[in-house]
Write a structure and sequence with these properties.
Elements lengths: L9 H11 L12 E4 L5 E3 L7 H14 L10 E8 L2 E14 L5 H16 L3 E6 L2 H21 L5 E5 L6 H8 L3 E7 L22 H7 L3 E5 L7 H9 L4 E6 L8 E5 L1 H6 L22 E9 L2 E11 L5 E8 L5 H5 L9 E5 L4 E4 L4 E3 L3 E2 L3 H23 L16 H4 L4 H14 L10 H16 L2
Parallel strand pairs: 4-9, 4-10, 5-7, 5-8, 6-7, 8-9
Antiparallel strand pairs: 1-2, 3-4, 11-12, 11-17, 12-13, 14-15, 15-16
Helix pairs in contact: 1-3, 3-4, 5-6, 10-12
Length: 462
């Protein structure tokens, strides 16, 4: 059996273009030895000749075209490390791609790597993942898409493999190769000082593996980067001396320089997911049902602006959740191209009180949203999903079918935080519903979570 891949999914092409266009103006670099290491070994490195100002200009153009908030500066991560015996300081820019679960995120970033090679000659990539399970998924996708992508890109010389501390010859190959090298690593394999990557094995003639990687100025592909935000993880990423990092997730914690966004609403509208079952609580014929969320209130000199998330009518006829910047006096009907926003003219933006008021009398605080009874909707959806999950598992367990239920959440903190609204509602509903079903024997949420994290800890030690 052979999988057939559609190379013309518009939303995937948009995500690939958004990243590739960040480096518009960069000439294609042909491979050559660029850095001599202390041992006499050399490396073929990535190169980027554009200035930060040129990259920022490209980013701002992309953000404007995609209806995203336009950044005023490049977001970078600073680092201090050593190459051979020389201590160096540096910083690398980060760019964010937000794609909903199940829409081909891994396919998109693999293809993006090949697009960067085709356009600019960038050839050294490291895919960093937070767990062994995700690593195996990435390797599987690399394997099944290899023929498809080689056909699509004219059979480029590319190799992919998992980093293995027992096979350090791979690191030398990564450094010296003139082809496209895609190395997949878990963050734990290079997060601690005692990791072999920082040692000096005889197999590399006294050179540390990390020095060979540093010399290539690798491009980092961060898969689920919200799981790599600890101080040690960030230091480990910097220790690789990357050229830049591309961050891919549906639930980012930090959205450095957002270049592309595909929200759950976008995925639903474009029918990109197989099925969504929604239990919602809404009031019919209520003008308050127009969706608005206050993302940010900014004061610059004498100008006060607010960034709002709204449902905007796009040129292709679809309605997407987009961030728009507004000033006092501006009309959301014009900003969204939708008559449903009639009456939502910005009357006041108050940075001290952290609220925005509209001419129709509706007032929203920073971080507040309107358009639905938020907590009631969350509660109904969560309860419905949990109960359906339990029922289906009971029906299908004898057939060996595993039931998987996904929640698309609006903000990571709504679950990750101890007092997160989604976490609290999930725990309450799970505990109540598990008591109703014999197979669950009243198991509470805390017990399930403890068992999950214990299993995760055991797997990370494998």
């Amino acid at each position: 059996m052979e999988f057939k891949f559609d190379a013309n999914q518009q939303y995937q092409l948009e995500a690939i273009e958004a990243v590739a266009n960040l480096f518009e103006g960069q000439i294609r670099v042909e491979p050559k030895v660029e850095l001599e290491l202390g041992s006499g070994l050399a490396a073929v490195a990535n190169r980027l000749d554009l200035s930060d100002a040129q990259i920022l200009e490209n980013l701002q153009k992309i953000q404007a075209e995609n209806g995203l908030e336009v950044d005023s500066k490049l977001e970078t991560i600073k680092y201090e490390t050593k190459i051979a015996s020389k201590k160096i300081k540096g910083a690398f820019p980060n760019f964010t791609v937000e794609m909903e679960t199940g829409t081909g995120k891994t396919y998109v970033y693999i293809r993006t790597m090949l697009e960067l090679f085709k356009r600019y000659g960038m050839r050294k990539f490291i895919v960093v993942v937070p767990s062994i399970a995700i690593r195996e998924g990435v390797l599987k996708t690399l394997k099944i898409t290899e023929k498809h992508l080689k056909d699509l890109y004219g059979n480029p010389p590319y190799r992919n493999y998992v980093y293995d501390s027992a096979k350090l010859s791979q690191v030398r190959q990564f450094a010296l190769s003139s082809g496209v090298e895609i190395m997949v690593m878990t963050i734990d394999s290079f997060k601690r000082a005692e990791n072999i990557i920082y040692s000096t094995p005889d197999r590399l003639q006294g050179e540390k593996p990390v020095h060979l990687i540093q010399a290539t100025k690798p491009i980092l592909i961060l898969d689920e980067p919200q799981n790599m935000e600890s101080e040690k993880s960030v230091e480990a990423l910097g220790a690789l001396c990357p050229l830049f990092a591309l961050r891919y997730s549906a639930t980012h914690k930090n959205k450095y320089n957002l270049a592309y966004r595909l929200t759950p609403y976008d995925a639903y509208r474009q029918r990109l997911v197989k099925k969504i079952e929604v239990a919602s609580v809404v009031t019919q014929d209520d003008p308050n049902q127009v969706f608005i969320r206050v993302e940010r209130i900014t004061t610059r000199k004498r100008t006060v602006t607010a960034t709002l998330a709204v449902h905007k009518l796009m040129k292709n006829g679809t309605v997407r959740e987009k961030a728009v910047a507004v000033l006092p006096g501006e009309d959301l009907r014009e900003k969204t191209n939708r008559p449903e926003y009639e009456g939502f003219v910005v009357e006041e933006i108050n940075p001290g009180g952290k609220f925005i008021r509209f001419a129709n009398g509706i007032e929203l605080q920073l971080g507040e949203s309107q358009g639905t009874d938020r907590e009631a909707t969350f509660d109904a959806q969560i309860r419905y999903t949990i109960e359906e999950h339990i029922r289906r598992q009971e029906r299908l367990k004898d057939k060996g079918v595993k039931v998987l239920s996904l929640f698309f959440i609006d903000r990571v903190d709504n679950y990750a935080a101890e007092d997160g609204i989604i976490r609290a509602l999930f725990d309450k509903n799970f505990t109540e519903l598990s008591a109703k079903y014999k197979g669950w024997n009243g198991t509470d949420a805390a017990q399930v979570q403890a068992a999950y994290f214990a299993q995760k800890k055991r797997r990370s030690g494998e």
